[in-house]
Amino acid sequence: MSIVERQPPLDATERAAIAELIAHYPTARAAAIDSLKYVQQRRRYVSDGTLHEVAHLLGMSAAELDEVATFYNLIYRKPVGEKVILLCDSISCWITGRDQLAAHIHQRLGIRQGETTADGRFTLLPIVCLGDCDHAPVMMVGDTLHGNVDTAALDAIFQPAESDTP
Questions:
Q1: If both were cysteines, with which of 14, 31, 45, 165 could 21 make a disulfide (CB 3.0 to 4.6 Å apart)?
Q2: Which of 111, 86, 115 is nearest to 98 (CA)?
Q3: Residue 125, CB half-sphere, CA atoms under 13 Å: how many?
Q4: Which GO terms describe its molecular function (predicted)?
């Protein structure tokens, strides 16, 4: 499935929310990360057009805001699925079975790292560390952290998610 990268311009509600975020800081630029996170929460990713609009609201160039956005690996600049699966690829997770989990995700959902399911529900992305090494292997699905994950746990995680209706 090809997810179209076009997004409509920011609407009045989104502009007002970003203005409210800006009001919490001594300068508009200081609201850059919060503004990007807000847009992503509403739209799943920050398109080029949206980045330009937000940059204008913050009094920044699009290049400056893009530097902020691309520095943080959890600000998505390309379309992602409804739920992002972050699979830790630290040494702790690798030693404890991370590659087997990646293979099982591929078998179960038909996607590899960097890919999105055909229905647009899931995107699988690697992440350097989720900071829960004592529970390796670790992954996040959406905002939920899962530790000590094996293939049975993975099946349990995805079974309810797969049965949800979009």
A1: 31
A2: 86
A3: 21
A4: 2 iron, 2 sulfur cluster binding; metal ion binding; NADH dehydrogenase activity
Residue type, 131: G
Residuewise pLDDT in 10s, the chain (166 residues): 445 557 899 999 999 999 999 999 999 999 999 999 999 999 999 999 999 999 999 999 999 999 999 999 899 999 999 999 999 999 999 999 999 999 999 999 999 999 999 999 999 999 999 999 999 999 999 999 999 999 999 999 988 765 654 5
Which of helix, strand or coil describes residue 166?
A: coil
93 is in an annotated binding site: yes
Place of tokens 């949800």: 164
Which amino acid would we find at residue 152?
Answer: A
Residue at token pair 């076009």: 6
Q: Is 114 annotated as belonging to a binding site?
A: no
Tokens of 114: 């960097």
86 labeled binding residue: no
Angle formed by the axes of helices 48-58 and 32-43, to 10°?
Answer: 140
83-88 and 122-127 strand pairing: parallel
Tokens of 117: 């399911």
Residue 72 identity: Y
pLDDT in tens, 106-122: 999 999 999 999 999 99
Residue 129 counted as an annotated binding residue: yes
